[in-house]
Amino acid sequence: MLPQHLKQIRLLMLNDKENLQRTLFRLEQGFELQFRLGPSLQGKKVHVHTNYPLEGQPFNRNKFYALAWSNPTGKEDDSDKFCSLDLKIAGSYEYYFGYGDSEQMGRGYIVVDPVLRVGADNHVLPLDCITIQTYLSKCLGHLEDWPDRLRVAKEAGYNMIHFTPLQTLGESRSCYSLADQLTFNPEFSPEGKSCSWPDVAALVEKLRAEWNMLCITDVVYNHTAANSAWIRQHPECGYNLVNSPHLRPAWVLDRAIWHLTTRVAEGRYKEKGLPVDITNESHLNAIRSVMWQDLFPQVKLWEFFQVNVESTVEHFRGLLQNGTKPDSSKTGGKKGVKIIQDPQYRRYGCTVDMDFALETFRPHSSSPQHVEECCGWMRAKLNDLNKEQHHIVHQHQEQAVSCIVANVVYERLADHGPKLGPVTTKNPMVTRYFTFPYQDMTLEQEMQLLEQPDKMCHFLAHNGWVMGDDPLRNFAEPGSNVYVRRELICWGDSVKLRYGQGPEDCPYLWAHMKKYSEITAQHFHGVRLDNCHSTPLHVAEFMLNVAREIRPNLYVVAELFTGSEELDNVFVTKLGITSLIREAMSAGDSHEEGRLVHRYGGEPVGAFVQPSLRPLMPSIAHAMFLDVTHDNECPIQLRSALDSLPSSAMVSMACCATGSTRGYDEMVPHQISVVKEERLYPKWNPAAVPSSLGEVGPRSGIIAGKLALNKLHQELAAMGFIQVYVDQVDADIVAVTRHCPSTHQSVVTVSRTAFWNPKHHQYGSDVPPMFIPGKIEEVVLEARTVARDAGSYKKDERYINGMPEYTVEIKEHIPLEESAVVKRAGVTSKGRSEFVQEITFQNLTPGSVIAFRVSLDPTAQRMVGVLRYYLSQFSPKYKKGSVADDSVPEALQKPLAQLMSTLTLADLNVLLFRCESEEQEDSGGCYSIPGWETLKYAGLQGLMSVLADVRPNNDLGHPLCANLRQGDWLIDFVSSRLVHKEGPVAQVGQWLAAMFTYLKHTPRYLIPCYFDAILVSTYTTALEATFKLMSSFVQNGSSLVRHLALGSVQMCSVGRFPALPPLSSKLDDVPYRVSPITDEKEQCCVSLAAGLPHFSAGIFRCWGRDTFIALRGLMLLTGRHTEARNIILAFAATLRHGLIPNLLGEGRCARFNCRDAVWWWLQCVQDYANHVPQGHDILRCPVSRMYPTDDCEPCKPGEVEQPLYDVIQEAMQRHLEGICFRERNAGPKIDMHMRDEGFSVTARVEPTTGFVSGGNRFNCGTWMDKMGESERARNKGMPATPRDGAPVEIVGLSKSTVRWLVELHAKGLFPYDGAQVHRDGQLVFVSYSQWDQQLQQSFEAGFWVSRDPHDPNEKRPDLVHKRGIYKDTHGASSPWCDYQLRPNFTIAMVVAPELFTVERAWEALEVAEKKLLGPLGMKTLDPDDMVYCGVYDNALDNDNYNLARGFNYHQGPEWLWPVGYFLRAKLYFAKKLGDDAYNATITLVKNILSRHYTHLERSPWKGLPELTNENGQYCPFSCETQAWSLATVLEVLYDL
Question: What is the model's pTM?
Answer without folding.
Answer: 0.89
